[in-house]
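User: I'm curious whether this sequence folds into something compact or stays loose and floppy. Could you predict its structure so I can see for myself?
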Amino acid sequence: MHSLPLFVRLAGRRVILVGTGEAADAKRRLLERAGAEIVGEEASASLAIVALADSGEAQAVIARLKARGVLVNAVDRPDDCDFTLPAIIDRAPVIIAIGTGGASAGLAAAVRQRLETLLPQTLGPLATALYRWRAAIRLAFPSLEARRRALGAAFAQGGALDPLVAGPEAVEPWLRTPAAQGDRLVSITLVSDDPDDLTLAQARALALADRIYLSATVPPAILDRARADAVRIVCAAPPDTREPGLSVWMERA
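Assistant: Here's the prediction. I'll summarize afterward.
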C-alpha cells in the first residue's frame, strides 16, 4: 500500500488553490462541495492544490509551498504530490474513494463508474439510521467483540442489514431480533498465493475473523485481506479449543 487513505474534514478550513482554467475550476468545485475556504498562495493553510500548466511556474509554486510545510497536490504531476484526490462515490454520510496514487485518474474514474451502478442510494440513509440507533445497539451488544460479530453477520450478503439491499427501515426489526452468533472456527486451505483465488466464503471469513491461526507459509498478500486488528497466531495446527467469536485456521494445500 503506497498511501494511507484519510478523510479530512474541510468545512470552514482554509485550502490554498493556485491556478486558473478548467483543471483549477474542477478542483475549486470539489473544495467548495466539501465546505473548504479557498485562499491564495500567500495565505496560511495546511493543504494546497496547484493547477498550473506551465512546468517552471508550477515547480516554483510547489517549492515555495513545501518550504512552508504545506502539503501539496499538483495536478498532473504525481511525483510532486504529497496527497492525491481520489475519484469519489458520494452516498452521504458514506463516502467511497478510489485512488491510484496519481498513476491513472482515468482508471479511478472507470472503477467509480462501475461501482456507482452497484451501490444503492439507500446506503447513506442506512448509515444514518445505524448512527441514530447506536445507543440501542451498544445496549444490545455491550462488548466491542459482540457488537462487531453481530453487525458483521447482519452486513453479510443476505443478512438483515445487507448494505446492497437493506434500507434504513431494516435496522429496528434487526435490533429487536438479532441473530445469535455462535463461536466458530473456519478452516481455509489455500490453492495458490493469489488472493483472487479465494472463494467468496473464504474472503468473507477472513474479513470478519477475530483471530487468524496460520502456518508460517501463508503469504502476506492473503493476510492483507483480513481485518487489520484481527489477531495473527502462527502455529503448526489449528487450535484444540474454541475461542469466542470467529476464528480462521489457514494453511497452504
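Summary: Strands lie at 14-19, 37-39, 47-51, 71-74, 87-91, 94-98, 184-190, 211-214, 231-234, 246-252. The chain is about 35% helix and 20% strand.
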